[in-house]
């Protein structure tokens, strides 16, 4: 019977975890029920996967697709090949993004910058912004402010007028939103002078900070708030013999590159680029892959329910089949 380790962790991971020895067959097995005794525990659904394209597919402009949303955070998937039809100003949240594919010009009151695959950025609360995407896919995280960068910036936004080739100054709508900036959270929509919005950067010292985690193995935390951590996890390979269990937070993952098998106490599933998955609080999990793999790691100390329809679900496998995957 195979022995594995369990790293018993607590958000915000500021103290070393306890490491436990486990028999994998028990960790993944059904509960023991003595003859004649009532069944213990509740029935829990398996882990679900939500998939969106990881490569650009031409389509008409549409609002972002919600993936997970709760009182603590909203996570969206967006694609565009052109501009969105308004500037956006958040009243309550910082807005982070991860560039999946294509190039996106982010234009704000504190400077403009072109984002390429692998770039992370944060728009501080209250800053008006717009996007111009070219075969673009990006992921958005709306988290109540304040959120802070956890690593130094690779580069920053600058005062750039025109912000992209072919830009012409125009009157454009500005939408102000409250709460988590989702549908139904708009406060006012009114015309604004786009040139004046972009020229405001000349009077500001703050700039958009573009982060890239580099090639470091393990998890690199990029953003921190009181209840959310956002990072990138990478590994050349993993035999999955170390499980993690977070006692007070749930973990959302998005597969960036490579393929891996996610093994959890609520099922096992193969992940590929474009897959989102959430591991519930208190559930042990690990990854198995023989080639390099990278994924986003988003940890929330408050529940963030899945709002998008599942693409597929995990399947419970016995420990012997997990061992065969190694």
Helix content: under 10%
Low-confidence stretches: none
Biggest sheet features: 8 strands, antiparallel
**Rg, alpha carbons:** 21 Å
**Spatial arrangement of strands, main beta sheet:** 11-16-17-24-19-22-3-25
The shape, in one word, is: elongated
Task: Compute the number of helices.
Answer: 3
Instruction: Indicate the mean pLDDT.
Output: 95
Q: Could you say which structural class the secondary elements and strand pairing correspond to?
A: mainly beta
SSE topology string: EEHEEEEEEEEEEEEHEEEEEEEEEEEH
Work out the strand percent. Answer: over 45%
Distance between the termini: 15 Å
Say how many strands there are: 25
Give a written overview of the molecule:
This protein has 326 residues and is mainly β. Helix content is 5%, strand content 48%. The chain contains 3 helices and 25 strands. Strands 11-16-17-24-19-22-3-25 form an 8-stranded antiparallel sheet, with no helix packed on it. Strands 4, 5, 7, 8, 9, 10, 12 and 15 form an 8-stranded antiparallel sheet that branches. Strands 2-1-18 form a 3-stranded mixed sheet. A hairpin with an 8-residue loop joins β13 (171-177) and β14.
């Amino acid at each position: 019977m195979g022995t594995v380790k369990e790293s018993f962790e607590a958000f915000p991971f500021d103290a070393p975890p306890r490491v436990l020895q486990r028999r994998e067959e028990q960790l993944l097995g059904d509960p023991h029920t003595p003859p004649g005794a009532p069944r213990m525990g509740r029935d829990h659904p398996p882990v679900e996967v939500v998939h969106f394209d990881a490569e650009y597919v031409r389509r008409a402009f549409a609002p972002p697709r919600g993936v997970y949303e709760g009182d603590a955070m909203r996570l969206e998937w967006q694609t565009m090949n052109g501009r969105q039809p308004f500037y956006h100003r958040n009243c309550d949240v910082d807005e982070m993004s991860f560039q999946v594919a294509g190039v996106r010009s982010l234009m704000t009151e504190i400077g403009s910058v072109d984002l390429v695959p692998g770039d992370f950025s944060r728009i501080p609360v209250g800053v008006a912004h717009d996007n111009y995407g070219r075969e673009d896919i990006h992921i958005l995280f709306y988290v109540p402010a304040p959120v802070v960068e956890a690593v130094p910036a690779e580069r920053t936004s600058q005062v750039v007028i025109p912000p992209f080739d072919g830009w012409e100054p125009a009157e454009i709508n500005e939408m102000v939103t409250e709460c988590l900036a989702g549908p139904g959270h708009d406060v006012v929509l009114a015309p604004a002078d786009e040139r004046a919005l972009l020229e405001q950067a000349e009077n500001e010292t703050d700039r958009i900070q573009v982060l890239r985690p580099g090639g470091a193995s393990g998890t690199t935390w990029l953003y921190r708030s009181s209840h959310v951590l956002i990072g990138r996890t990478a590994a050349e390979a993993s035999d999955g013999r170390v499980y993690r269990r977070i006692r007070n937070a749930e973990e959302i993952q998005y597969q960036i590159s490579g393929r891996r098998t996610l093994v959890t106490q609520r099922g096992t599933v193969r992940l590929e680029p474009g897959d989102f998955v959430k591991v519930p609080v208190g559930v042990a999990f690990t990854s198995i892959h023989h080639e390099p793999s990278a994924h986003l790691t988003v940890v929330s100390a408050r529940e963030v329910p899945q709002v998008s329809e599942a693409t597929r679900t995990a399947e419970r496998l016995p420990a012997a089949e997990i061992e065969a995957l190694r």
